[in-house]
Design goal:
130 residues; mainly alpha; 2 domains; elongated
Length: 130
């Protein structure tokens, strides 16, 4: 059985124990003011499913982070997922190791013009700059 104390906001992770169940369509998080009757907080939300919903009879909802009128909505206690950037950072590190580190400010690096990074950048330059 779902208890009020186990529910947390899908966006910030704040406790929703002060709200009564069932959640109303226009209920918002007391901390971040995010709408709560949203697909991202529903137990049927699955980013890997068609229309990101495992409930086959549900109508498609395009905005998964906005309040909706879905009759199948059931709040999911574990809907909040902190943003873990470790995988993203690891992938960026691998790309930088492969193509060389770029400062991102448009300045030229001290690498030779035959580096893989420079070759990649040269490949996508407009013809007027070549």
């Amino acid at each position: 059985m779902l208890s009020e104390s186990s529910l947390v906001c899908w966006k910030c992770g704040a406790s929703l124990e002060t709200l009564s169940l069932p959640l109303r369509r226009l209920d918002v998080c007391p901390e971040c003011d995010s709408e709560l009757h949203v697909c991202r907080m529903c137990r049927f939300f699955d980013p890997n499913s068609i229309d990101q919903c495992t409930q086959e009879d549900a109508e498609e909802v395009r905005e998964k982070e906005r309040a909706n009128f879905c009759d199948y909505y059931k709040p999911q206690p574990g809907a909040y997922q902190s943003r873990d950037t470790s995988q993203s950072d690891a992938a960026k590190d691998k790309l930088n190791a492969l193509f060389g580190d770029s400062s991102g400010d448009g300045s030229q690096s001290t690498e030779s013009s035959s580096s893989p990074r420079q070759e990649l950048e040269d490949l996508f330059k407009p013809n007027s700059e070549k």
